[in-house]
Amino acid sequence: MDPILKLALQTLEQNKQAIIFAPSRASAEKSAEEIAKLTTFSLPELEQEILKVASTPTKQCRKLSHVIKKGVAFHHAGLLQKQKELVEDEFRVGKIKIICATPTLAAGLSLPVFRVIIKSLKRFSGSWGMDWIPVLEYLQMAGRAGRPEYEKFGEAVCIAKDEAEKEEIHERYILGKPEAIYSKLAVEPVLRTYLLSLISSGIIRDRASMKEFFTQTFWAHQFKDMQKLESIMERMLHLLEEWGFITIVSPANAGFVSANEVNQEKLRPTLIGKRVSELYLDPLTARHIVDCVAKFDQNKNAFSLLQMISHTLEMRPLLRVKSKEQDSIQEELTKRYDFLLKEEPSAYDLEYDDFVSSIKTALFFNSWIEEKDEDFLLEKYDIRPGEIRVKQETADWLLYAAEELASLHDHKSAAKEIRKLRLRVEYGVKEELLPLLKLQGIGRVRARKLVMHNLRDLGDLKKAGLTTLSQLLGKAVAESVVKQLGQEVQEVPQGKRKGQTSILKY
Q1: Whole-model pTM?
Q2: What gap in Å lies between CA 178 and CA 384, rounded to an integer?
Q3: Residue 204's closest CA among 191, 218, 219, 188?
Q4: CATH number at 434-506
Q5: At the topology level of CATH, where does 184-278 sit?
Q6: How confident is the model at residue 494 (pLDDT cuts 50, 70, 90)?
Q7: Under a CB-based contact definition with an 8 Å cutoff, are residues 447 and 434 in contact?
Q8: Distance between CA atoms of 458 and 194, rounded to whole angstroms?
C-alpha cells in the first residue's frame, strides 16, 4: 500500500486527525480522493453544505463534496474563501479527519492535528527544476502537529523515496538550521513604494530626514554599510523624480550647488505622486499604467487594458504558460498584437517569459468578461474558482488605480473605458449587460436571461411589467426590481459598488 494511504489509515484507527501536505493542488486533490475511497464515514449534510457555498457548483466543488462526505477534504488557494473556512471549521470540530493541503495551510492556523505527513520536500522552481524547500517552510508544516491546546504531542512524518533521500532529509531538515530572515526593504519594489509613501506623508522632507529614518530600520541594521544604502536610496529618489512622482527642490537659485546645499534640497511629492502613494501602487506599476493609458485610443479595446494590468508585479503570480500551450498563446498574441499598449520585448529579454504569461492572464480575463463559466476557465486556463476571485480583486484595484491616473492626466476616453471594464471584470459579463447590473438582485445569470428575452435596459423592464419579470426572475426578485424602477434613476457617484440601485450612465 502507498505509504501516504497507510499513514492516513493508521491515523484514523487511532481516532486522530492529520494534515497531508502535497507539493501541488492536483496532488492534494488526488490524495484526498484516494483516501476517501478507503474510509467508512458518511456525512451527506456536509456534502450538500459545500455545494451551497458556490452559486453555481463547478467540477472542483463537486469533487470536494464527494470526498468531504467521506470525512476527507482538500485545501488550497483554488478554493473559495467560504469553502476553505468550512473545511477548517469542520476539521476543528472533528467531522473532517484528514485534510490534504498545499503549504498555504502551514502558517497562521492552529488545528487539532496529531500527525503531519509531508508528501514531498521538493518544489518546482522554474528553470532550475525541482529543488528543496527552505528549512523554515518545513518547520511551518511540521509545526502544525501537536498544538498544545489540542494534543500532548504530535508527529511530523516526511516521505523519502529511498535511503539516500532519507539521509538527505535528516541532514537538511532535522539537523539543519533555519535560514536567516532579511528585511523586505532590500527588495526594490518595496523600497521605492515606501520611499514615495514617506515623502508623500511628510515624514521624509529632505535627504537628512531620509537618512535619519532609514538608519533606524532593520534593513540598515542588517546591511551595516550606510554609504552603500544611501547610494541605493539616491538612485530610488532619481527614479521617482524621473517618473514624475516627486520634485527635488534646491535652495540655490542658480550656478554651483555645494554638498551642504544638496543635503538641504527639499523632497516634495507631485499631485500624481501623492495619488500613487494613496493607491498603494508600486511606482513602477504606476509609471507603466500612465504610459499605457497615454497610448489608449479608440483603436484599442478591453484586451489592451487587461494585458496592461496583467503585466504588473501586483498581478503575480501570473498564469504560467505550459510547454504544450506555447504555440496557441503565440497565435493569440499575433492576432492581438496591434492592441498591445507596450511593445513586445525581445525573446532574449529576461522579462519575456513574464510578458508571455501576462498574455495568458489577459486571455483568461477576456474569457471571463465574455461570460465563460468557471468550468471552462479551469479546463482552458487551469485556474480555479478561488484563484479567479483573487485575480478579480487585484484587477479591480489596478483598474480603479488606472481610472484615477487616467483622470489626473485628462485621458477622458480611457477613463470611461476603464470604468466600464471594471464592472465587466467584477461581474464577468459582456458590455451589453451593464445597464441591468446596477439593479439590486440582478447579476450575471439573471441579466443574461433578461437580455435573451429582449429586455435590455430600464425602459424595457418598465414596459415588461411584474408578471413577465416574475416568470423570468421569480416573484421576490421581480417585485424588488419593479420597486427600484419606481425610484428616480441617478448617475452612480464615485465609489458606488455592487448591490446599489443607481444606474451607471456611459
Answers
A1: 0.85
A2: 33
A3: 191
A4: 1.10.150.20
A5: Arc Repressor Mutant, subunit A (1.10.10)
A6: very low
A7: no
A8: 46
